[in-house]
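Weekly puzzle thread! Below is a chain. First person to post its structure in token form gets bragging rights.
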Amino acid sequence: VTLERLLQLITAVVRRTAYLDLLLENPLALSQLVRLVGESSWVVAQLIRQPLLLDELLDPRRLYSPLHGDALNDELQTLLASVDDEDLEQEMERLRQFAQGNRLRVAAADIVGAIPLMVVSDYLTEIAEVTLRRVHDSAWRDMRRKYGRPGGIAGDASGFAVIGYGKLGGIELGYASDLDLVFLHGSSDQNAATDGRRSVANDVFYARMGQRMVHMLTTRTPSGLLYEADMRLRPNGNSGQLVASLATFEKYQLND
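Winning reply:
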């Protein structure tokens, strides 16, 4: 089984000799690869989809020590520090590299027993939360640049909430879990609009911000998807607005 999985991986990367050189020149990395591939078909699938992850095998101390808390935020900030704010494509690629690399580290630590099975979902959920926070911040930055700030929103906050349902909400994410999300906004004035040159109504602003976030999560780039996003749990499901107001959400929960 291990040999068959390895051959699948080698077939996928054989035209990119840098990856073969990496394994030939680093026996320790090769040994880690054999160990992980023998235990997990998911690891093989990730490496075939994103061979860049083979770099993670070079340092076993890092490979088997998944990040959490501030360390996750710090790594993501470092990855994105050199990316221009207007280069959405590169930002999306770096976000995928961040999420995939950290999920691989969790899987490696899980396989060798470096972390207890019961906390695997905690690590995976935290990776998703950090990623979602960055996707939110990026969409808010770009929408604000384009349309200005929504009217009637207090302080510096965006007035936009990302609610996690399902396995995300229950801190039970698996390696291939999608994200069950509901987007809400806090604008209560139906006549409020943004203050930019291209002013739009608040609800239009937030709808476009939600669309931007879904685009960042689900668009297939060379590194694949960031996450599958399931938005069907919002009020009225697929026929409802992508981003509901808090008042609409409350009414829906109480009455429907």
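Puzzle host: Confirmed. Bonus trivia for everyone else. The mean pLDDT is 93.
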